[in-house]
Structures are given as structure tokens and as C-alpha cells.
Amino acid sequence: MERKNQTHLKEFILLGLSDDPHIQPVLFATGLLIYMFTLAGNLVIIILIQIDQHLHTPMYFLLSNLSFTEICYITSTIPKMLWDLLSGDKTISLPGCAVQLYCFLTTGATEGVLLSVMAYDRYAAICHPLHYMLLMSQSMLRWLVGASWAIGNINGVVNTAFIFSLNFCGPNKIVHFFCDIPPVLHLSCSDTSFTELVSFIVSGSILIATVSLIVLSYVLIVLSVLKISTAQGRIKTFSTCASHLTVVSIFYSTGIFTYMRPSSHHSMEEGRVISVLYTIITPLLNPLIYSLKNKKMQVALLNVLGKRQHCQL
Q1: Which residues, 6 or more positions from 101, have their beta carbon under 8 angstroms from its beta carbon?
Q2: What φ, ψ does residue 173 adopt, rounded to 5°?
């Protein structure tokens, strides 16, 4: 009978980034602009890579998949936040919260794996240029992307299933703008130690594996670059990795800080602020970091715009 009394909660309330009603219109306008810019930037990348034959290479194939993942990633959180700010209704049902958490964890883990695959791509291009197209063949690329999504789904399914098998019987206010692991666990009236352990093992294993592959790839890349005789050649070769390293640093540092700590060390307010970096800022910056500063992407964009202007004339 006691267990039955512990499962009456049917919805949560997302407190958002701020409770101040004067700030919420500003947050809505800012969030909407960021979301639209992120969608536009990543869609431009996908479209350019599809239509420009010069971009039909393994690196840009992976980049287009990363852009698609970024769209799914930011869409799992921002639209709900914008609706809450616009309508003032900040409730979310337990099933809705579970779906949001699953989508967020799946796309987040998929992005992490894709970043490690892109590190391997850079290793193959720099360390084995003669065998690059063999190592990164179309069948291999499809397999790597499929594996990335499969691993992401495992992360989403396992974490979501264990978290929402807990009882929620007390306060229902989530100190966050979306359903994330730490704030949801914080509201459970069950013993969360086993669920935390499972989450730590599953997400931690993916994190360790992907980070290890990235580190190993870059150690081998650095050793290969050091063999280049001229400083200009070393800088030119390693510059192809700069964008990837920037995104990896932002994505993994915030993710490790948020998820790889015991719940006793979690500050809900601190986590809410930190999460803005990896849920909003990283997807926003990726089109700029990866592609809009890339010469081949610039040429492809200018070619498309030039053809359109020519057709109009």
C-alpha cells in the first residue's frame, strides 16, 4: 500500500532558467534567435555538402551527420523551453519528461561518438593518406554512423528506463529548463544509488571509450605531424584539426563536469547554468567553428549564391 502511495506524481514543473517574469521575454527572444540560427547554420551545412561535388568526401559526410545530430540535439530541449516561456505553462507529464530525457541522452551520446569517429577520420587522413579512401570507404562510413546512433540509443534507453522506474512522490519542481538526469534524480523518493551506478557505468563507458579514441588519434596525429620537416607544413596539417579540437573541448569538459560527479556534489543552480553551454552554445557555435570558417564551405556557399544570382538575371 505504501508503494502505491508513492507513485501519484503525474507531472513535473520545469522552473526554467529564471523565475523573474521581467527576464523571461528576453530569454524567449534570445532562445528563439539562437534556435533559428542553429537550425539555419546546420541546415546550410547539410545542403551544401549534398549539392557540392567537391564536398563529397568522408570528412564532410561525417560533418553533415554531425549537423543533423546537432539539430536533433537542440530540438530535444529548446522548443519546450520556448513554449514554457511563451505560454507560462511549465508543466511536463512524466511520459513527456521520459521522452525528452531519452531524446536528449540519445542525441548527446551519438554526438560524442561521432566526434570520436571524426578524430579517427583525421588520424586516417594525416597518418595514412594513401589508404585514406580505403579506411574511410562508403560502407565503413555508413557502419560508423549507424554504430554511433546505436550506441546513443543504448545510452538513452538504459538511463531513461532505470530513472523512470523510480518512485516520484514528493516535490515535482525541476530546477532546470529540461528533464536532465541530475535534477530528475534529485526529485525521486526512492533510493537512487543503484540507478546512479548504472548511469555512471553506461554513460561513463561511452565517455571513456570515445575520449580514449580521441586522445589516441591525436597522439598519433601529433607524432606524425612532428615528422614533417617544415614548420609551415606542420601548422598547415594540424590546422585541419583545430575546429574539431575546439568542439571536443567544449562538449566533453561540460559533459564530464555535469554527469561524472556524485549526486551529493551536484548544485542544481550550477548545473542549470553549465548545461546552457553544452545544450545551446555548442550547437550554436558548431556551424561557425566547423564550416563557415572553412574555405571549401565558403567556396561552395559562394558558388550556390552566384548561381542563384545568375538565374535571377
Answers
A1: 156, 159, 160, 163, 164, 179, 180, 181, 184
A2: -95, 115
Tell me the β-bridge partners of 11: 93
Task: Number of helices (H) and strands (E) in the chain: give both, helices first.
Answer: 14, 3
The answer to whether 109 and 203 are in contact (CB under 8 A) is yes
Pairwise CA distance, residues 69 & 47, whole Å: 14
Do residues 272 and 175 touch, judged by C-beta distance below 8 A? yes
Task: Give the Cα separation of 173 and 160 in Å (integer).
Answer: 19
C-alpha cell at 87: 505560454
Q: d(Cα 199, Cα 150) in Å, to the nearest integer?
A: 17
Q: Which domains does the chain have, with CATH numbers?
A: 2-312 (1.20.1070.10)
Grid coordinates representing 37 are 540560427
Cell triple for residue 191? Answer: 533510493
pTM: predicted TM-score of the whole model, two decimal places: 0.86
User: By percentage, how much of the chain surpasses pLDDT 70?
Assistant: 88
Q: Is the pLDDT of residue 181 over 50?
A: yes
